[in-house]
Fold this protein.
Amino acid sequence: MVQYIERYKKDIAIDMRKRGFSYSEIQKSTSVPKSTLAYWLKGLKLTDEQNGKLKAKRLEAMQAGAQKKILRTAELIEEMKNSSAKDIGKISKRELWFMGIVLYWRERFLNGNENDLKKGVRFTSSDPYLVKLFLKWLREVGGITDEEIGFDIFITEDKKDFLDKTIDHWSSVTGFPKSNFSHIYFQKSSTRNKKEEIKSKGETGRKNLTGRRNSKRTFFGLLRIRVKASSMLARQIAGWVRGIRQYYWTEPEEDL
């Protein structure tokens, strides 16, 4: 009886092996130790087709394992983000004040207009959340009313057909009526943007996750927030920036 069962399992193992199953899969189905399977299947010769199926299943298992690892890593990252988000808690008005100062300081530096205070307060970004944050800062810290705020949209010429969607987007982000977005500036598509788009594509020609995310953010171009007649506020911000610099670095620097 025992020999019959063993022979039965051996036949199953041989049949499964010919159909491209791995040792682990056969062991799971037959409950036979791998050492026994290796002995049973040692002299088994497989056809090219059978070897091809076996390789395909190995590749499939490797891909499944890699995908599982990627998903687990993504879950861990998301858990960490959610946990870190709770560290922020309630943001005080003073903290909002500092956030806006540093945000504006960085924006002026990147655009090379740190010495141009006569034009007043101007903030440009493609990130809807930074736009929302700066508008909140203007209202709650700068004491600026909505009537004092103007907008400029900068988009590339190849996005002209999507102008209505672009205006709808920024109107939704800011909460201002679409009539407030009449200043539109079209820019030529740069070679750099095209190269970045190509770089963001994978081997299959499809854009990867980062590429899709960046494309979505830049699709609606840049929004510039302008505060009308705000040279005094601009000078005040420059003074706050100077205070931060002097707090950490006592050496003299050029004025903003």
